[in-house]
Structure to design on (160 residues):
């Protein structure tokens, strides 16, 4: 029995363990990518993720909140980071676009410290994106923080 080409595969294993949230972000990125490329129904994306190897080690609730949050609030999420991209967002690679969507959604809708959000986005870009995509993702999200969380960004540099 063969799997469809759009099924979600487990992220490549790396040295050391990855947290459940990191795994959730990886699966969410794969789902957002699939949605951007093929407009696959989110229910089908969820079903494939549930069957994927190592999904049981992910935080399923966090995965669903990211995937469905990005898809449900796609326009507003994309509009939030768009001013910091410097070009039409449709010219971005689908991986970097997906990472920016997830990072932006997290900045807008969670209490996760912004440095953690940016670091996790950079790690996703290093694992799944192009050679220097992580630098681009870092720059866009860093600028976005001052818009979405000015209270956190302004106080954190002095509070080390």
């Amino acid at each position: 029995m063969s799997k469809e080409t759009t099924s979600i595969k487990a992220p490549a294993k790396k040295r050391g363990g990855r947290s459940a949230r990191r795994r959730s972000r990886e699966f969410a990125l794969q789902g957002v990518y699939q949605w951007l490329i093929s407009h696959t129904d989110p229910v089908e994306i969820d079903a494939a993720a549930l069957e994927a190897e190592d999904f049981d080690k992910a935080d399923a609730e966090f995965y669903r909140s990211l995937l469905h949050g990005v898809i449900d609030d796609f326009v507003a999420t994309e509009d939030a980071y768009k001013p910091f991209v410097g070009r039409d967002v449709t010219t971005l690679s689908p991986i970097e676009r997906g990472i920016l969507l997830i990072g932006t959604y997290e900045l807008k809708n969670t209490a996760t410290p912004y440095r953690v959000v940016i670091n996790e986005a950079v790690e996703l870009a290093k694992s799944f994106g192009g050679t220097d995509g992580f630098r681009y993702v870092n720059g866009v999200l860093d600028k976005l923080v001052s818009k979405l969380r000015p209270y956190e960004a302004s106080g954190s540099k002095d509070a080390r």
Notes: Confidence is low (pLDDT under 50) at residues 1-16. The helical segments are 20-38, 42-51, 60-72, 74-81, 94-109, 114-128, 133-148, 150-156. Residues 100 and 153 are 18 Å apart (CA to CA).
